[in-house]
Amino acid sequence: AQSVTQLGSHVSVSEGALVLLRCNYSSSVPPYLFWYVQYPNQGLQLLLKYTSAATLVKGINGFEAEFKKSETSFHLTKPSAHMRDAAEYFCAVSGGGGTSYGKLTFGQGTILTVHP
Amino acid sequence: NAGVTQTPKFQVLKTGQSMTLQCAQDMNHNSMYWYRQDPGMGLRLIYYSASEGTTDKGEVPNGYNVSRLNKREFSLRLESAAPSQTSVYFCASSGRDRGRTFFGQGTRLTVV
To answer: Is the distance from CB of B31 to CB of B50 less than 8 angstroms?
Structure first.
């Protein structure tokens, strides 16, 4: 069984400030972890993924995340927020093996607001 | 590249009506999925098809049926719509690129 908890349903930052979106997971097997972004009225776009290689993962749009097994965390960061980063962000986990790559368990989502 | 295409984009149903949501992918992926998205709950898996000819229940299958018509197409049917099925539905597919799942643009369904 797997689960994901995103801490904070809303995060607000100023443009140029650090973005930190928190994600904790539980999984009975070595997990694959993902961050997706959703802009209004659109589908989900993959930001980055962890699939048991390097623990620090770099994604698109300047985002990165670090897999910490001891803390069961996969927090998303960006050094400097931009207005275009305003969106909803989802953390997700999958069991990873066989044909299960797309069987994702999602967190509740975090809405990121960026103020000028 | 079209990727994952869903139709329709919007739909309003009356309670008890039936409808089928269509999904097609052009990436030659083996696996396809249907999720629903509700505010504050993220996305939840309804059904999935690991390969052509197979389907399995996900986390919230009640009230839905699916058909994997061929490798490209995976449809979701609501036999008797209920207000609790008001949601945004996403189709997705995945292939050999580990961990890369592609999502459609979604179908916004309202049941009144």
So the answer is: yes
